[in-house]
User: Which sequence fits this backbone?
């Protein structure tokens, strides 16, 4: 958007250097092209900035040099070929690329610091980026009440999101390369039409009809792409929500049903290890230290002593040196099931806890399925190719309608369509974007609180006795 806006302003400067209408006349009809409308054609005789009152180009701004004056008369009449000065051409090409150059500067660290200094950027330093070594995709932040209020505020949300493109948004960083390439293509098409078509070279302009017809198919491809990616995101979010619920349920079941306090403490120490190891299993192993994450699953450090401590170093080493073929979360579930078997529970209680372990196994398999099977690669590649070729050829249709506004229009359309496709790329692999650390931390904290309060404040004697309402009338009649 910034490149498009500045393109419209900077190309106004390039507009002044366009050849005169006489130089753009048609050799076939012998008629001169109509002068372009604008300040230069109104204020300067001859319809061209830099022209003399008699219609001849001035020495300073004209594009016809001495070499043109030496051409035979019949060649000049046949081709109406302007002698393009290399310096003028390159300088005007540079002017057309000023928006892209300014955008490149704003995306560099000094440019970002300047934008932040003027208050155009939000402070996102506390938001983590996804793993992989790039700082272009932020993880989704868990929303609070204040965040929801800001999210739906009007009209400030329109202003903040638009102005945020200058510094706090990462979409321009991801689209930096394709937008710069399309900016060069648009400027090249514009100057080819301005300088080389009058020399007799073929006109490469395309009608708008093919783009109008194909835009519907392109729109459907983009919509299906983003919809499928969003469905994967929603599915992953639901799976991790169920993992949180089952982990809570298992910890509470153990606290109420375990006959021995030591069995309960041992089981609840292992419960957060599943969600922690599954998070590491679903993300790039180069960016996660499984041993370090398992140490943190004990809960907050200030409470990870005595009853609040997590699994021991020997147990962490046991998970790391698990049998070949077992993933870390799978091995943790195997150990949890073994602890349930040896806890000495009643049959019904054991079956309920076994059912929860089975649910966690199903959730683990569903996560592995989402991670291993992306949206069909052929569909994704075809959508990307179609979109990029469509945008690359679009300036050939825009230049006949927009003229000097070709770069402006191209950048606006490219930013919108490439941004939609980029959303699908971000959501397709949801486990890097979802704030899974928040769920893992919540499981660890609640398990630590339960361990520290077990058999004291949360003992069975502290819970109120539940009386079945159906038995109340019968008991009253017996007493009577």
Assistant:
């Amino acid at each position: 958007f910034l490149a498009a806006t500045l393109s419209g302003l900077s190309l106004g400067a390039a507009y002044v250097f366009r050849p005169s209408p006489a130089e753009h006349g048609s050799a076939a009809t012998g008629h001169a092209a109509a002068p372009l409308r604008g300040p230069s054609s109104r204020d300067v005789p001859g319809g061209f900035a830099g022209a003399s009152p008699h219609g001849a180009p001035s020495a300073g701004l004209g594009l016809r040099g001495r070499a043109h004056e030496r051409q035979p008369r019949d060649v000049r009449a046949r081709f109406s070929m302007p002698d393009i000065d290399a310096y003028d051409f390159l300088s005007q090409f540079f002017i057309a690329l000023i928006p892209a150059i300014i955008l490149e500067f704003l995306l560099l660290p000094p440019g970002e610091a300047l934008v932040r200094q003027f208050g155009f950027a939000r402070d996102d330093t506390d938001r983590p980026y996804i793993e992989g070594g790039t700082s272009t995709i932020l993880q989704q932040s868990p929303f609070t009440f204040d965040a929801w209020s800001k999210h739906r505020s009007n009209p400030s949300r329109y202003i903040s999101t638009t102005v945020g493109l200058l510094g706090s948004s990462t979409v321009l960083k991801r689209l930096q390369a394709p937008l710069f390439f399309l900016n060069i293509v648009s400027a090249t098409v514009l100057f080819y039409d301005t300088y080389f078509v009058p020399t007799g070279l073929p006109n490469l302009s395309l009608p708008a009809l093919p783009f109008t017809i194909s835009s519907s198919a392109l729109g459907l491809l983009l919509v299906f792409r983003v919809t499928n990616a969003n469905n994967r995101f929603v599915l992953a979010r639901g799976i991790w929500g169920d993992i949180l619920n089952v982990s809570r349920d298992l910890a509470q079941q153990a606290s109420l049903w375990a006959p021995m306090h030591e069995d309960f403490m041992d089981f609840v120490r292992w419960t957060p290890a599943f969600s922690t190891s599954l998070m590491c299993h679903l993300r790039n192993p180069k960016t996660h230290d499984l041993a370090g994450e398992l140490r943190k699953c004990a809960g907050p450090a200030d409470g990870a002593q005595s009853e609040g401590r997590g699994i021991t170093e020997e147990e962490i080493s046991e998970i790391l040196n698990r049998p070949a073929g077992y993933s870390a979360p799978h091995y943790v579930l195997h150990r949890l099931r073994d602890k349930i078997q040896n806890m000495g529970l009643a049959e019904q209680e054991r079956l309920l806890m076994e059912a929860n372990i089975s649910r966690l196994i199903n959730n683990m398999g569903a996560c592995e399925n989402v991670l291993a099977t992306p949206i069909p690669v052929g569909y994704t590649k075809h959508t990307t190719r179609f979109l990029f070729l469509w945008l690359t050829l679009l300036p050939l249709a825009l230049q006949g309608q927009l003229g000097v506004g070709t770069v402006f229009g191209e950048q606006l359309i490219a930013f919108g369509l490439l941004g939609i496709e980029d959303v699908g790329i971000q959501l397709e692999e949801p486990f890097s974007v979802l704030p899974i650390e928040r769920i893992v931390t919540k499981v660890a904290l609640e398990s630590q609180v339960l361990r520290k309060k077990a058999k004291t404040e949360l003992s069975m004697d502290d819970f109120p006795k539940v009386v079945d309402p159906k038995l109340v009338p019968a008991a009253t009649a017996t007493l009577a």
Remarks:
- Residues 1-6, 8-17, 19-81, 458-480 have pLDDT under 50 and may be disordered.
- Residues 209-257 form the longest helix (49 residues).
- The two ends are 83 Å apart (CA to CA).
- DSSP finds 22 helices and no strands in the chain.
